[in-house]
Amino acid sequence: MRQRSLTRPLGVGFIALWTLIPLYWVLNISLQNDAQASARPAHYFPPAPSLENYASLLLGNSGVASSIRRSALNIVIECAGATLVTVVLATIAAYAFARMNFKGRNALFYAVLATMAFPPYATLIPLYQMMSSAGLVNTYTGIILVYVSGFLPLATWIMYNYMSSLPIALEESGQVDGAGRIRVLWSIVLPLARPGIVSTAIITFLQAWAQFLFPLVLSSDISTQPLTVVIAALQGRHTVPYALMSAAGVLAVAVPAVIAVLLNRYIVSGLLTGSVK
Predict the structure, then answer these.
(1) d(CA 100, CA 94)
(2) What is the pLDDT of residues 52-79, one digit of tens each?
């Protein structure tokens, strides 16, 4: 019994260390200068903690700092655009699947869900060929469209579960009063589905923020490359600015971490409410 009682905390502790040690190491290097970061043996604690690297990224005029700032703007635009389009389309599709009867509804719904079983990167080459033929390579529009195509099935499933759990009596009352489908959706369904919409938006945004291979292939220019791609590209230079790159990594991780911590209750509430019918 004692051995069983120790297994869980030991397992949780191992997973926590496995997750947090790399994050601590990046933070540690970001608070050092290049000489300290390249020293051997390595400094397990910053000898003289400094925010100079962060100041250089945010205010500096170097090429690396300019690239990081531009890529940070790119990733915000691409994630926000993909989230907005995905949530709008998923909400409309989920409402149609949950409340409207039309021929082939179930077959179409399960076909949409089935696309989640395919490895995303299996479509990378066809998507690149399509984007290239349409002139959408190295554009925000091309990256956002590719993101939406990948995120829409999961977003539709989340919104479908949530809308299916809403009481249909309220919608029927609105229709009795003369409201059409659009008015019912806008005035009744969307306010009730707000937690599900928020959770879907957060999950979609975090998925978009974590993308690497798709934007790496679809964007070869700093004008559209996101932060994840630019940080990785710094490693290919002859002189790698480890400290500056670590500071950029901390900033890249901080955004989704803060979103997940501050909006965690909305994610849990939306997912749990949508899963109970």
Answers:
(1) 10
(2) 889 888 887 877 788 888 999 999 999 9
Whether 86 and 151 have beta carbons less than 8 Å apart is answered as yes
CB atoms within 10 A of CB 159: 27
Do the Cβ atoms of 230 and 68 come closer than 8 Å?
yes
- Angle in degrees, 0-180, between the axes of helices 2-30 and 242-262, rounded to the nearest 10: 130
270 close to 198: Cβ distance less than 8 angstroms = yes
Is the Cα dihedral 140, 141, 144, 149 positive or negative?
negative
Q: Is the pLDDT assigned to residue 168 strictly greater than 90?
A: no
Give Dmax (Cα) for the chain: 76
User: What is the dihedral sign for C-alpha 61, 66, 68, 73?
Assistant: positive
The dihedral through the CA atoms of 27, 33, 34, 36 has a sign that is: negative
Residue 60, classed as helix, strand or coil, is coil
Q: Is the pTM of this model over 0.90?
A: no
CA distance 160 to 105: 13
Element (H, E) at 212: none
> In angstroms, rounded to a whole number, what is the distance separating the alpha carbons of residues 196 and 215?
28
